[in-house]
Amino acid sequence: MRFTRFTVGLAAMLCAASVWAQAPILIKFSHVVAPDTPKGKAAEYFKKLAEERTHGRVKVDVYPNSTLYKDKEEMEALQLGAVQILAPLSSKVTSMGIKDFQVFDLPYIFDNLDEAHKITQGPVGKSMLNKLDKLGIAGLAFWDNAFKEVTANRPLRTPADFKGLKMRITPSKVIDAQMRALGANPQVLAFSEVYTALQTGTVDGEENPTSNIATQKFYEVQKYMTMTNHSFHNYVLVANKRFWDSLPPDIRKTMDGVVKDSTAYFNSIAEKDNNDALAELKKTKMQIVELTPAEKKSFKKALAPLHKQFEPVIGKELIDAIHHETNWDPSTF
Ligand code: LMR
């Protein structure tokens, strides 16, 4: 057979095409917490399911602990398509102009995980996820973590104990207002900077669920943790919409199943993981402060007004819908 330039060129194209055809679809999944947290474990489970169920046609690279992008950067990277999947704290999407997602930051909006799931895994949550489309983001699911506690170097038993404290917060107008209502000075910092900020005294305290407090070793630089359970810490699983909508139909169908099953996995492990983290924290030198009913009531009374205050920002309709679904009644505080 004579090897003309044509046959050599054709062979090269066929070879390239076959290589391209075999190149997996790459998903970069960036997050800011430790691997041994509910989000860290669920990200790895997402990877496992995606690679197994697509028989390698999809490859997921997970980048935990801010190793690829820190908080604010990750949002921008998602919109640029530099990463394909994130699971940021719901209120962190606020930085992209969607105010509704701060609703979970409203203090004491849920009494327990069942109430939270009713909202995030039901029609209210679905309508919230759909709102992300206009940002070029596919809102895939909510991953419901736990209720937040506060840590500081003094025991925080009543609102008055917060007076003058510099408290690290995530970028949420609700949490900013929450800290100011308690007489503290809120300071937004990326999650990856919190340990050093606590260690150097740049801030005096912070709020997080026990799984983050334990895995970030905040107990090394905080003397007290108060079990306020004052607001809900959940994530929104999001994808770059152009990428997600461009997936081949068979792959997209499989990935929709991966989203569903990794969400069920996250929501099935979170409560135990955070309870296990609390048990670990009780073994450290950090003292755990349990509130009396009267002390907890003092926080609820001090913070309940934020629900009304944020109607113009979050939307009265959404807040009322959640109050209705959960029988939220401040007169019971
Ligand atoms: C934070 O305080 O920034 C963390 O809650 C972030 C996270 O993803 O858990």
Give the secondary structure arrangement, pairings included.
Layout: H1 5-22, E1 25-30, H2 38-53, E2 58-63, H3 71-80, E3 85-86, H4 113-120, H5 123-130, E4 137-147, E5 149-152, E6 166-169, H6 173-181, E7 185-188, H7 194-200, E8 206-208, H8 210-215, E9 224-226, E10 232-240, H9 241-245, H10 249-281, E11 287-289, H11 293-303, H12 305-309, H13 311-314, H14 316-326
Parallel strand pairs: 1-2, 1-3, 6-7, 9-11
Antiparallel strand pairs: 3-10, 4-10, 5-8, 5-9
The chain binds (2S)-2-hydroxybutanedioic acid.
(2S)-2-hydroxybutanedioic acid (LMR) binds at residues 32-33, 89, 170, 191, 208, 212.
Summarize the structure.
The protein is α/β, with parallel strands linked by helices and 333 residues long. The chain has helices spanning 5-22, 38-53, 71-80, 113-120, 123-130, 173-181, 194-200, 210-215, 241-245, 249-281, 293-303, 305-309, 311-314, 316-326; strands at residues 25-30, 58-63, 85-86, 137-147, 149-152, 166-169, 185-188, 206-208, 224-226, 232-240, 287-289. The chain is globular.
Describe this structure in words.
By secondary structure, this protein is of the alpha/beta class. It has one domain (2-328): Bacterial extracellular solute-binding protein, family 7 (D-Maltodextrin-Binding Protein, domain 2), CATH 3.40.190.170. Helices cover 45% and strands 17% of the residues. It is built from 14 helices and eleven strands. The protein has helices at 5-22, 38-53, 71-80, 113-120, 123-130, 173-181, 194-200, 210-215, 241-245, 249-281, 293-303, 305-309, 311-314, 316-326, and strands spanning 25-30, 58-63, 85-86, 137-147, 149-152, 166-169, 185-188, 206-208, 224-226, 232-240, 287-289. The N and C termini lie far apart (88 Å). The mean pLDDT is 94. The structure holds (2S)-2-hydroxybutanedioic acid (LMR). (2S)-2-hydroxybutanedioic acid (LMR) is lined by residues 32-33, 89, 170, 191, 208, 212. (2S)-2-hydroxybutanedioic acid binds at residues 32-33, 89, 170, 191, 208, 212.
